Amino acid sequence: MFKHSLLLFLLLTVSALVAQVEKGSIHIKNGTVLTVTNGVLENADVVIENGIISRIGKNLRTPAGAKVVDATGQFVMPGIIDAHSHIALDAVNEATNPVTAEVRTGDVLDPLDVGIYRALAGGVTATHAMHGSANAIGGQCETIKLRYGTYNPNDLKMEGAPRTIKFALGENPMRVHGEGGGLMSRTRMGIEHVFRQAFSEARQYLEAQEAYARQKTSDPTAVAPMYDRRLEALGDILKGDIIIHCHSYRADEILMLMNVCKDFGIKRLVFQHVNEGFKVAPELAEFGAGASVFADWWAYKFEVYYSTAYNAAILTRNGVVTSINSDSGDYIRHLFHQAGKTQRYGQLTDNEALRLITLNPAIQLGIEDRVGSLEKGKDGDVAIFSAHPLSVYAIPQMTIVDGVVRFDIKNDNNDQRLDPDPEKIDMMMLNYDEDHRCMEGTGAALFHNH
Amino acid sequence: MRLTTKTFLLVFVALMMAATSLSAQVVGRATKGTFLLKNATIETIANGTVRGDLLIVDGKIANIGMNLTAAGAKEIDCTDKYIYPGFIDAGTNLGLIEVSSVSLTQDARESGEVKPFLEALTAVNPSSVAIPVTRVSGVTTVLAMPEGGLIPGQAALINLVGYSPDEMYAGFKAMRMNFPSSAARGRRDRRSEEDRKKAEEKKFKEITELWEETKLFAKIQRAKATDPSIRQAYNPTLEAMIPVVAGEMPLFIEVDRSDDILAALKWIKKTKVNAVLTGVAEGWRVADSIAAAKVPVITGPVIGLPTRQSDRYDRPYANAGIMAKAGVTVAIRSNDTENVRDLPFHAGFAAAYGMGREAALKAITLIPAQLMGLGDRLGSLEVGKEANLFICDGDPLETKTQIEQVFISGWEIPMNSRHSLLYDEFLERSPGLKN
Questions:
Q1: ipTM here
Q2: Which B positions 139-158 lie with beta carbon below 8 A of chain A?
Q3: Residue A163 belongs to what H/E stretch?
Q4: What is the pLDDT of residues A39-80, one digit of tens each?
Q5: The domain B89-378 belongs to what CATH superfamily?
Q6: Which of A176, A241, B260, B275 is the most exposed place for a label (fewest CB within 10 A)?
Q7: Which residue intervals of chain B bear CATH 3.20.20.140?
Q8: Which pLDDT value is given to residue A15?
Q9: At what angle do helices B193-226 and B236-245 cross, to 10 degrees?
Q10: Is residue A447 predicted with pLDDT exceeding 60?
């Protein structure tokens, strides 16, 4: 028995070592460096050693063994971060219950999804692989780095990133469980109740655990409360260990969730989509809630009819930490362009617009100490563009994750799939639907149903 | 009693206030008159870039030149500004769909397979909230397209100003056709390849019969003109198809897959229809064949995913440029409804990925105008053309550029939309949080 355990231990240790992610050293020379946190540096270098930015400045020395990249005439920015994505996932919705806090997208990562490469070709280095929006309380999400090339799903996980969970308000959970399942949440009243009931049960669960912990010190016969994965996850939200990322549109429902969170002492809250966030921007700023929005999507469903493309600008000007997300296998490829739209609609400055796809989504995911800007000590996640990334004429040239080149326009092989099926001819389908997956798996997935 | 009056007054005042705030849903009135745009950089599209003034009289461009004057004209200083012709989106559902997930607000997709008698223009809602949102971006003219089935109906070109479809109508209609395909509809299409081929053959048979019946119907109609004793049953389908089969009315053929594009080119040659290919997502695979057939193309969206997992990531961006380089006449469309305002960005991506800025600009101005036989009225800044144009502070394909004033058919357009009005109202909300 002991022998077996030892063997298992060794095996696990070895596999853990093998699973260690690849890190590289790169010297990016003579580019226009958009640091996001420390201004724009002309003719500057960025040096990455073993996956970490070691120096930024002029005429730096190339570390031994580092790859040299000439960025003369090019723009170097932090790798783009998408706070709302469904790429690299085998499944999106566990649409079987209004509360499924126990499931995790981290268990269904798909490192072979060519969508990862396509996102890299748009300068993206990290995404928030989210559960869908079918349930008021959906599954836990995974923050991943786009280490395309690995066959090991766990290599995608951004080690040390805080845990997050998907919530959803409004039409999607109303449709799936109310109209589709005859369950509460058929209305926005019901959705509030789902939250309050779930958190109340989780609070009781935590109290029972605490009581047991106290009791067992004096009473060895004390019985532990029944282990429940769902309540464990909900309890971790109450403890502040999981950040809520909530699919939302209307101002009233946004206010409702903030009230529920206040009542249960929950502070870490980011609203996703949040098309009517502009109406309650002062309340969002006061709460300290983040807003991860579309640049200009609206009118595809009734709850986004009263929208404005100036949403990101209004939120930013009101002091809300705001990001631009994709929620799409297509839009993730040009988030720099989507961020640029905040200059058409609201005239944000270059740096404000760039923050929407770098530092701000990093803050919303709790990974701002690691990524989101070009600073010494941060991860070597970098995107290089042919022109200023907010220009419509900018073409991504190279994308680097942990100092490893994961996309290089000069070495693009056209077919970048990792697992092409040799027996299947890859033909065009008339409605290729890799794009929109927020409602996938609910039987209600249609174009533009975010 | 006095109390009641007071209450009534209070309620009345409250209602009045509510009415004032509701006016935020209305964007204001367009104005017609004589406008003199001074000291601009004028991107004519047809005759290069010129510096000077542009005069609008009676809805038309009356003059372009240096130091123009016009009695009673409203002068607009355009120093450091640019003037471009209004962008034309040759493929949208604008005006036909209000909220795509609410079926009763969708007027693009009638039931049935063959319905050439349907007119998109009938269902264009001049009050669609998306119309002001679109036109303030410099897109002044769009093709409103019906959807669904083999023959969805007739698309109509509309200017984005006016309170009735007839007032908006810009003088061009085309019949639409979704070209038959044996491709799977999507990942959830469980039909076998054989079944899909059968379905395709059935549609081809349907088309052949439709063409033969229409020819016969037209023949009888002609005979009837000289012999009133001939009786002909009412048949709106065949009646509507007569100008298409005769090659008079343009046929916009929606086709994307490379095999289907080649099949469509063969079919066009055989039937001698007046054809334009639309969509054409895989045009880059067969660009030389399209060029050789001399069939023009309206492609888009440009900003989109590759059609196959195995395709290079930037194929949709590069598609328009590859076709244009091969010699195909290419216009760019958004194929959108609420975000037709993205049209210049679709052109921008095409420009960046090989088409070049000049060709991309033409693909959303002069080329669609010419494709629709309106090259003498729209698509460029030339004396005598309709005053569809806009003033901006930079390159309008760039997101940073502000579109400052739009004119459509000489109407000075209010530069408001739901989006800008909500911005005005909520940038500094009042009452705010602590009043």
A1: 0.94
A2: none
A3: strand A163-168
A4: 999 999 999 999 999 999 999 999 999 999 999 999 999 999
A5: Metal-dependent hydrolases (3.20.20.140)
A6: A241
A7: 89-378
A8: 52
A9: 90
A10: no
Out of 3.20.20.140, 3.90.550.10, 3.40.50.720, 3.30.460.40, the CATH code matching A22-411 is: 3.20.20.140
Instruction: State pLDDT tens for residues A316-363.
Output: 999 999 999 999 999 999 999 999 999 999 999 999 999 999 999 999
List chain A residues with CB under 8 Å of B339: 296-298
What pLDDT, on a 0 to 100 scale, did the predictor assign at position A424?
A: 84
Distance (Å) from the C-alpha of residue A117 to the closest C-alpha of chain B? 8
Residue A187: both structure tokens together: 């209305």
Report CA B270 to chain centroid distance, whole Å: 29
DSSP B144-194: E--BSSSB-EEEEEEES--SSHHHHEEEEEEEEEE----S-SSTT----HH
Q: How many CB pairs under 8 A join A and B?
A: 174
What six digits make up the tokens of A159? 């080690």
Closest CA to A355 of A313, A393, A403: A313
Handedness of CA B13, B19, B24, B30 (dihedral sign): negative
Domain boundaries in chain A? 22-411
Shortest CA distance from A331: residue in chain B: B304
B393 contact partners, CB below 8 Å, separation of at least 6: B80, B81, B82, B401, B402, B404
The CA distance from B58 to B374, in Å, is 19
Task: Work out the pLDDT band at A437, boundaries 50, 70, 90.
Answer: confident
Interface mutation target, options B103, B185, B305, chain A, most CBs of A under 10 Å: B305
Do B352 and A417 lie within an 8 Å CB cutoff? no
Cβ of B348 within 8 Å of Cβ of A392? The answer is yes
Q: d(Cα A449, Cα A327) in Å, to the nearest integer?
A: 11
Asked if omega into A389 is within 30° of 0 (cis), the reply is: no
Q: Distance (Å, rounded) from C-alpha A21 to C-alpha A32? A: 29
CATH superfamily of B29-86+379-435: Urease, subunit C, domain 1 (2.30.40.10)
Contact A432 B186 (CB under 8 A): yes
Give the end-to-end CA distance of chain A in Å, rounded to a whole number.
52
Which segments of B353-399 are extended strands (E)? 389-392
Which candidate from A299, A393, A394 shows the least CB-CB separation from B338?
A299
> Which residue, B31, B43, B27, B90, is CA-closest to B408?
B31
